[in-house]
Amino acid sequence: MDKSILVELISGCLMDVFHIDSGGDSAADYFSAEAYSSLKWIERQTYTRTNHAKMLVGWREGAFLTEFAKMVGARRILELGTFTGFSLLCLAEGAGRATAAATVADKGSFQIDAIEINDELEYIIREGVERSRYAKNINIFFGDAKLLIPNLPSAKGSAPQYDLVFIDANKREYLQYYNLVFPLVKKGGYILADNVLWYGKGVGDAPQKADAKTQGIREFNSFIEKASADSSAKIKSHLLKLRDGLYIIQKTE
User: According to the model, what pLDDT value does residue 24 have?
Assistant: First the structure.
């Protein structure tokens, strides 16, 4: 895919979701009634039962994930860092729409593998998934993604399996995650990396005293920027300034 076509794809997604910035009527109109109800439940539980509600991707970015998964026809998805499951159900909604729109010959189903290191959030994640219609399509694994990725069922075969990978886990380890999942992504598939602006510290001049998370994000951003500029590289990328920054990377070979 040419870089300009990638940008057109992203622009098309944004056209459909730019107006969604809260869980109000606009979001209720965009998501299916069941998905909206499940997402509202997860949002409420996150605010009342955790101390990290700011980690939610939110309705606008969630809608973008849904639209992007649908538009690229993602049927096999891997998520690293699902937190309380909000982004997980947004991706499932997109995969569900992509599956519904597929031709009869390619109808099949879809599957999402999600990894979360904090098992104390399991009760929210699992109940949120069960409240949706996508429970049978979702596999949830708890533990360190670096250890779990090589042992996922989808990592066992000889051919890449995933259409889309969403990275939103430990910021210190983004480049390690990327290197682990890249061989698992199909040609033409995508890797999305969240929070790459990192409150403005992930780009531009380096902070004098960069913390480990900032260093990890900057290392990842630098790697992607250089790889994208290399004519022999296997990726095209675009940094979307949505919320805290979302890197959209396509595997071209």
Answer: 65
For residues 155 and 87, give the distance between their C-alpha atoms in angstroms, rounded to a whole number.
22
The total of structural domains in the chain comes to 1
Q: What is the pLDDT of residue 75?
A: 94
Domain hosting 11: range is: 3-251
Distance CA 85, CA 106 (A): 28
DSSP 132-174: SS-GGGEEEEES-HHHHGGGSGGGSSSS--EEEEEE-S-GGGH
The CATH number for 44's domain is 3.40.50.150
pLDDT for the residue 103: 56
The whole-angstrom separation of Cα 226 and Cα 170 is 22
> What integer pLDDT is reported at residue 129 of this predicted model?
96
* pLDDT < 70 positions in the chain: 1-3, 16, 21-25, 103-108
d(CA 184, CA 162): 6
Give the pLDDT of residue 9: 83
Return phi, psi of residue 149, to 5°.
-55, -50
Q: Which long-range contacts (CB under 8 A, 24 or more apart) does 58-62 make?
A: 58/21, 58/243, 59/20, 59/21, 59/22, 59/23, 59/27, 60/17, 60/18, 60/20, 60/21, 60/242, 60/243, 61/87, 61/194, 61/242, 61/243, 61/246, 62/86, 62/87, 62/90
Q: What is the DSSP string of 87-113?
A: HHHHHHHHHHHHHHHS-GGG----EEE
Q: What is the pLDDT of residue 108?
A: 63
Query: What is the C-alpha to C-alpha distance for residues 58 and 66, in angstroms, rounded to an integer?
Result: 12
